[in-house]
Amino acid sequence: MIEIVVVGLGVVGAGWLLRRKHRARVAAGPVPGIPCMVRIPAGEGRWRPGRVYAEDGAARWVPQRGETVELPGGRATGVRMPSVKEGISIHPGSRIVTCAYDGDRGGSIEIAVMPLDVRELLAAVPQAEPDTP
Fold it and tell me: What's the Rg (C-alpha) of the chain?
């Protein structure tokens, strides 16, 4: 009988703590930016977590650690599913958007986002026009 009371009190205490934490998150409001994993240059290196911000028409990636990477003239060149090997490092249900950008460190970048965030990312980094002869 005492065990049931102790377990019940533990469940009530855990519920109270979780509800309190949830209310604090809701009161703080949504976090700006698009959560993502990025690999620079495309096809090489390791995936690093961060957020993509699109303000004033210019996109930038802010990693959890390190310096911000500006993406001037960024344009999406393709969207694909992750391979099995990539799915181990990132969420296997995500979508990978390959982007090219200009600037002093111009090159390519791969941005992995969840499917519901792809439309928002493509609004921040518009798709490139296909080359027609």
Answer: 20
Whether pLDDT at 106 is above 50: yes
And the tokens for 41? Answer: 């240059």
Q: Residue written as tokens 């439309």?
A: 119
Phi-psi region of 86 (alpha: psi -120 to 50; beta: other; left: phi over 0): alpha
Which of the two residues, 13 and 125, has the higher pLDDT score? 13
Q: How far apart are CA 10 and CA 7, in angstroms?
A: 5
Q: Is 132's pLDDT higher than 50?
A: no
3-state secondary structure the chain: CHHHHHHHHHHHHHHHHHHHHHHHHHHHCCCCCEEEEEECCCCCCCCEEEEEEEECCEEEEEECCCCCEEECCCEEEEEECCCHHHHHHCCCCCEEEEEEECCCCCEEEEEEECHHHHHHHHHHCCECCCCCC
Diameter over CA atoms, the chain: 81
Write the pLDDT tens digit of every residue in 30-75: 778 889 999 887 778 889 999 988 877 678 888 988 888 887 777 8
